[in-house]
Amino acid sequence: MTLISTSLRFDYSYSKIWSWLSKNTNGIDDFSRLFFTIVGIFAVFWYTWMYIKSKNKGKPPSPPGPRGLPLVGSLPFLQPDLHSYFAELARTYGPVVKLQLGSKLGILVTSPSAAREVLKDQDIVFANRDVPVAGMLLTGGRDIVWNPYGPEWRMLRKVCVLKMLSNATLDKVYSLRRREVRETVGYMHSTAGSPVNVGEQMFLTILNVVTSMLWGGTVEGDARASLGAEFRHVISEVTEILGLPNISDFFPVLAPLDLQGLIKRIGKPLERLNGIVDKIIDQRLNAEREIGSTAGNFKDFLQFLLQLKDEEDSKTPMTMNHIKALLLDMVVGGSETSSNSIEFTLAEVINKPEVMRKAQQELEEVVGKDKIVEEAHIHKLPYLLAIMKESLRLHPALPLLVPHSPSEDCSVGGYCIPKGCRVFVNAWAIHRDPSVWENPLEFNPDRFLNSKWDFSGSDFNYFPFGSGRRICAGMAMAERMVLYSIATLLHSFDWKVPEGMKLDLSEKFGIVLKLKNPLVAVPTPRLSNTALYE
Q1: Contact (Cβ atoms closer than 8 angstroms) between residue 153 and residue 430
Q2: How far is CA 312 from CA 4, 107, 121, 308, 320, in A?
Q3: Residues of each annotated binding site
Q4: Where does heme bind (predicted)?
Q5: Where in the sequence is the domain holding 19, given as residue range(s)?
Q6: What total of structural domains would you count in the chain?
Q7: CA 13/CA 309 separation, integer angstroms
Q8: What is the pTM of this model?
Q9: How far apart (Å, rounded) are the C-alpha atoms in residues 154 and 469?
Q10: Using one digit for the tens of pLDDT, what is the confidence trace for 481-495?
Q11: CATH number, position 338
Q12: Which residues are annotated as a binding site for heme?
């Protein structure tokens, strides 16, 4: 029996009773009318509840979780460091937790087996995103991070992974990475003995590498140098806000009001950033109109994307909005994540002098003290790779990855996961699981020597770059940049914290994890030949 037919029969019976009472009692007083109305409404709700219950019979139960408050759910109880707060909830309720966040439902996944179900076994189902307001403001949701799974996303992914960030392409632009890293080493050598803000310097290094790859031939001189400060301000604001709980995301009907002022806070910087990107694209288009296309000579990624846009035989054409979104993805995503990983890694190494000595010994054996580190040396430095892996175990760049959203109702860990909810995979907590990792809070690169763990995302005890279709598109670039930078910094300098200061490894949560207090350290040159610092 369907709900509609049941309700119609009840309505008919109710009207017959009402008609009989009206004729035989000379009318019903107001109280009686109210009474029968309430009874009728209650009956409709009861039939509806019974119908829904019968339809849900046999479905998996909802995951356990904190009860929360009416309307707002658990929003008032969220803590600033969401990754550690979510880990606490998992210890209380289990590996799959339900968390009501306003009108949105959040699902917390905190075990290797549950992560495998989300990222591998049901990869296509969970390949979509629940785009936050800040993400829409940044790229309109048209970029590779927030675009829903489908032909458009596959086109962007193919362009990034197979063309722009392939190993062959990265080999071609090694000279750009080398130039920027050598300039940073030269700067640090000039300030030897004085404290250096490591994160700030590495951010500018990575930013210069990324912008050189994207549009290196477009902006030169003072104009190019001025981009660093502007981009850093905007990128820091964007990544911080993307990681903050935003009322507009949990109550979409309230989004136009911007009750927290987060959209207003990044509105002007984003406008400036979009203005810079628009200007760079316009300059390139004007130059090509004046001197003609240089299709035969690969100059930078912007030129490649503009040429791709002009191809008419593509099933899913590249648009100018796609180009802008990809450029912003690489600038925002590439700079902040890689520079933070370098900063965390160097901080952990400084905190463990024996690790620094062992890494420097390996560098001396492979490179020597009369040469500089080249990327060709990296594959001969297994201990250095183990240092990077251990740093990313403790401090994954995206501690909760980028939240997934199922395209249909499904189940994970024996629990019902409804379509459209927001799924947080807590890689940070899984990487610290004491049932998998011995002394999980200790920085110990030796655990990765001769180990099976890599960055492929195939082992769900360790997946710092994610897994499945949505695995980080810039993984190859990040691995090269972080390893090359750390190798160069440790080969060129000894490092220590300034006198009277204490090294602080506390984390600050955001969609991108960073040190709570920036790493300030003193470099001391190790190489006797000053020409090696030029």
Answers
A1: no
A2: 52, 42, 37, 9, 14
A3: 472
A4: 472
A5: 3-56
A6: 2
A7: 66
A8: 0.86
A9: 9
A10: 999 999 999 999 999
A11: 1.10.630.10
A12: 472
Is 47 found in the same domain as 162? no
Same domain, 274 and 330: yes
**How far is 483 from 366, CA to CA, in rounded Å?**
15
d(CA 512, CA 514): 7
Residues 303 and 401 in one domain: yes
Which string of DSSP letters, residue by residue, matches 130-183? ---HHHHHHHTT-STTTSPSSHHHHHHHHIIIIIISSHHHHHHTHHHHHHHHHH
Query: Is there a domain that residue 75 lies in?
Result: no
Statement to judge: residues 476 and 379 lie in one domain: yes
pLDDT in tens, 261-303: 888 887 877 887 788 888 888 888 887 777 765 544 556 888 8
| Within-domain flag for 474 | yes
Q: Which residues of 361-393 are buried (b: 16+ CB within 10 A; e: fewer)?
A: ebbeebbeeeebbebebbeebebbbbbbbbbbb
Would you call 11 helix, strand, or coil by DSSP?
A: helix
> What CA–CA distances, in Å, run from 206 to 177, 334, 341, 372?
8, 8, 11, 19
| Judgement on whether residues 52 and 88 belong to the same structural domain of the protein | no
In a domain, 76, yes or no: no
Angle between helices 198-215 and 301-309 (to 10 degrees): 40
